[in-house]
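Hi L., both proteins are below.
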Amino acid sequence: MNDYTTANTVEEFRRHLAEVHARIAAACAKAGRDPATVRLLPVSKTVSEERIRNAYAAGCRTLGENKVQEAHRKWQAMADLSDLRWFIIGHLQTNKAKLVAEFASEFQALDSLRVAEALDRRLQSLGRPLDVLVQVNTSNEDSKFGLPPEEVEAFVKQLPVFASLRVRGLMTLALFSDNAAKVRPCFVRLRELRDRLRQSAPDGIAMNALSMGMSGDYELAIEEGSTIVRVGQAIFGARKTPDNAYWPDVASSTGE
């Protein structure tokens, strides 16, 4: 497992960000891709406001969070950073949809029509749209949220009715393993599903984004076509909170 060092100062964050960007560039070179086609999403769950402000000073302008209420508190506390955008990447309950609609720039874990309806209703009342990705359970684990791959096409065809949701692509959490041979098929499955959906998706539904890859496997994800990598520990440092606080029943993981 990786031993992630903690970043506290602006200079430490600059160094960690530079290292991650260099590794993204190297993975793109290996795959024959342009690094500009991969977006880095720093994941700041459990990170304090003070450290986030230093990460912002080092160049972070987007942040991913799993828990809506934690993210909403941080958004309120850092409202003075007007160009800082918040992305929700964790499972959403319908009663929290109003919070996401209020502040999020993107929601990457859409996997139910009830959540889509709740989000759309709130967004309509606020007069704003929201970019969303559909979460797919490519590892077929009971502990993971997301739709089974075989249900995604029918689900996507029902989304145009929710006019405030701008569907941009797919997201997945790969199998938590240090074995690349076990992890890679999850990424391949998502890419192949996205390619099929491009042929069948309704008008207005984009299937360009692939959010896959975290601190322990983002280079592998890039090789398989990821356009968004969600990196937390490689930027902020090792997390004390266990991953099963964010994904129930998951005993261990590479984490973001």
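That was the first. Here is the second:
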Amino acid sequence: MAYKERLNKRGFEETRPIEAKVGIIKRADGSAYFRIGNTIAYAAVYGPRNLFPRFLQDPQRGILRCNYNMMPFSGSGERVRPGGSRRSKEISLVTGKALLPVLNLEEYPNTVVDVFIELPQTEAGSRCAGICAASMALADAGLIMKDLVAAVSVGRVDDKLVVDLDYSEESYEGIVADIPIAMIPNSNKITLLQMDGMIPKEDVKKVLEMAKKACKKIYEVQKSALKDKYKVEQDV
């Protein structure tokens, strides 16, 4: 049977409900909360601070380190095994690569910027939510940035092209392709593009356009969260 409508009645190009806040972890230099549907990500930034041991320092630029972690009972499927895993290491790596293009780390030689991403609850799209939260947390920390990074998953469920797959769609028994994409909204440059599954070549351009529109929407939510924080601080 063809996939005629989404199981939660969303439009095929519609994201799940989105919520974002910044400055939520007091002892961090920058922090953020990002929720899309039932997937929740917290990000905390510490730094720039001196990197030790000294032989790891780069006199030309600072170093970005990202740590992605899903809590044991966060998943919609099986229990997540606590501690590091190959998947968490891979997502930590691609998160850092997705964020680096907007950071001007040449301003912070011999230092490190640590980003910790924790997901207490997930229902698909966790790496994209983590990237969105981390981008806001870096901005909240006051680092020099060219722009924010927004991320969303797009893909295919049977013969339909969709935005922001949820768990029911990722685990759908028919044909499924999940494509996490991170973009710099003002320039439309892609900083992350991965794919799990197969999709016809002619549909790739279509889903990229769908991702661009969704990232613009997420970008506005990210900017509003940052503006709201500083508006509140000015009013106090």
